[in-house]
Amino acid sequence: VFTTNQEALVRSIIGPDWDEKTMFRKAVERNLADAESNPNDLYAWFNLGAGYFTLGQHRQAKQAFETSQKLGWPHRMLWYQYQPIQNYNALGEYEQALTLIRQGLTNNEAYAELRYEAAVAYKGLGQVEQARQEALKTLQYDPGFSKAQELLSSL
User: Which of 62, 81, 100, 147 is deepest in the core (most CB within 10 A)?
Assistant: First the structure.
């Protein structure tokens, strides 16, 4: 969007939000206010969860994602954003991650990112062969997925 010599200008326009943690803290504040003012807004809750997840606040993210899910995610919600799955994996709640992965893979078997998250979950459960199979599927759908290759090498 901008060239390297324009970075100073872009930084001055964006201001303190140039820093990712600052940007996500502000996003959490905005989405928390939105969720509190409209408790039935599943997207405000989901976005709140995504902000918390990015900041490494996994317990808060879990609560926000689960509130959002209870409000009724659209069928393809996990086709586009899969932070709830990553969050369950980060918390070591691998069965929950796999439950969401199955939902996300419905009619979308070739989703490399979800296959990778499945490999992470299976590895966390100690199911090495399942983890290997999911990592291989990840690489089948996206041969350049370096994290999948690293995970496969670690098995």
Answer: 100
Which residue matches tokens 């140039």?
18
Tell me the average pLDDT across 52-57.
Answer: 97
Instruction: Report the distance separating Cα 140 and Cα 149, nearest Å.
Output: 11
3-state class of 143 per DSSP?
coil
Q: Within 10 A of 41 (CB to CB), how many other CB atoms are there?
A: 17
CA 22 to chain centre: 19
The predicted pLDDT at position 90 comes to 98
Average pLDDT of the residues in 114-126: 98
**pLDDT at residue 136 greater than cutoff 90:** yes
pLDDT of residue 75: 86
d(CA 143, CA 136): 9
- Residue 22 and residue 57: Cα distance in Å, rounded? 14
Largest Cα–Cα separation, the chain: 51
Q: How many Cα atoms occupy the beta-carbon half-sphere of 118 within 13 Å?
A: 25
Judged on CB neighbours under 10 Å (0-12, 13-18, 19+), 115 is: buried
SS3 154: helix
Q: What is the CA radius of gyration of the chain?
A: 18
